[in-house]
Amino acid sequence: MEIIVKKTLKYLKIYVDESLHLNIPIEEYSGIQSWIEGDNLCSYCIEFYLKNGQKILCTYEDKKIWMLILNKIDEVL
User: Fold this and answer.
1) CA 63, CA 16: separation in Å to the nearest integer?
2) DSSP string of 9-57?
3) What pLDDT digit, counting tens, does each position of 41-77 carry?
4) Closest CA to 22 of 5, 44, 36
5) Domains of the chain
């Protein structure tokens, strides 16, 4: 599994195995939050906040993917 996060002048882009997974306009980006839901069968969540009050919620079943995405985002922001 390859995760690539790119920040351009206009977008924050997340790719999973070379396919675009998420594209957020940088000028709209306000913040990020992540958490784990559940005890046995966990969901791993990342929520992106936009300046207009909207949110983008991404939920993953694989902790490794979730952690890779968070670490790559931290590298570019």
Assistant:
1) 14
2) SSEEEEEETTEEEEEEEGGGEEEEEEEEE-SSS-EEEEEEEETTS-EEE
3) 899 999 999 999 999 999 999 999 999 999 999 999 8
4) 5
5) 3-76 (2.30.29)
